[in-house]
């Protein structure tokens, strides 16, 4: 059995510290986003900046199920959303700006569209 060197001990300690630090940082983000494994966000239906945004449990039959069975719509057009592993949400319109809820994703999309129409997301 090889002897434990100082370098190996420090490398192992650094790896353990990094792994526990990542888990510690991810847990509060998931709690802040209201993420509970297996839970579906509450439905919503509102007018935001003159645009009707809606969110509800998806009935299936659409494209890939990245939204965890949840559909978001802007003026009746589906906004493709995806739930990240940490519980945050992104949309096809604001892909690099994760938000806490599908409602926030819909609002961010309306802000980004600046009055332009949302075009249907191609399924093929």
Under CATH, the topology of the domain at 44-113 is which? protein ne1242 fold
The tally of helices reads 2
Computed structural class = alpha+beta
Q: Low-confidence parts lasting 5 or more residues at pLDDT below 50?
A: none
Radius of gyration: 20 Å
Please write the CATH class name of the domain at 44-113.
Alpha Beta
Give the biggest beta sheet.
4 strands, antiparallel
Give the mean pLDDT: 80
- Across the major sheet, the strand order is 1-2-3-4
CATH architecture of the domain at 44-113: 2-Layer Sandwich
Sketch the topology as an H/E string, one letter per element: HEEEEEEH
Q: Overall 3D geometry?
A: elongated
Q: What gap, in angstroms, lies between the N and C termini?
A: 56 Å
Helical content class: 25-40%
Number of beta strands: 6
Task: Provide the β-strand percentage band.
Answer: 15-25%
Query: Which superfamily, in CATH terms, is the homologous superfamily of the domain at 44-113?
Result: protein ne1242 domain like
Could you explain the architecture of this structure?
The protein has 124 residues and is α+β, with helices and mostly antiparallel strands. The chain has a domain at 44-113: protein ne1242 domain like (protein ne1242 fold, 2-Layer Sandwich), CATH 3.30.1880.10. Helix content is 31%, strand content 21%. It is built from two helices and six strands; from the N terminus they run H-E-E-E-E-E-E-H. A four-stranded antiparallel sheet has the order 1-2-3-4, with helices on one face. Strands 5-6 form a two-stranded antiparallel ribbon. Strand 3 and strand 4 form a beta hairpin. The termini are far apart. The mean pLDDT is 80. Keywords: Copper, Signal.
């Amino acid at each position: 059995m090889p002897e434990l060197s100082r370098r190996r001990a420090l490398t192992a300690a650094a790896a353990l510290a990094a792994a526990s630090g990542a888990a510690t940082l991810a847990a509060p983000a998931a709690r802040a986003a209201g993420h509970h494994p297996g839970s579906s966000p509450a439905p919503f239906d509102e007018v935001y900046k003159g645009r009707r945004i809606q969110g509800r449990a998806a009935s299936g039959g659409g494209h890939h199920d990245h939204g965890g069975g949840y559909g978001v719509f802007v003026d009746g057009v589906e906004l493709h959303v995806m739930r990240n592993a940490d519980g945050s949400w992104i949309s096809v319109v604001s892909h690099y700006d994760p938000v806490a809820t599908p409602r926030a994703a819909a609002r961010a999309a309306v802000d980004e569209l600046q009055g332009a129409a949302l075009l249907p997301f191609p399924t093929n």
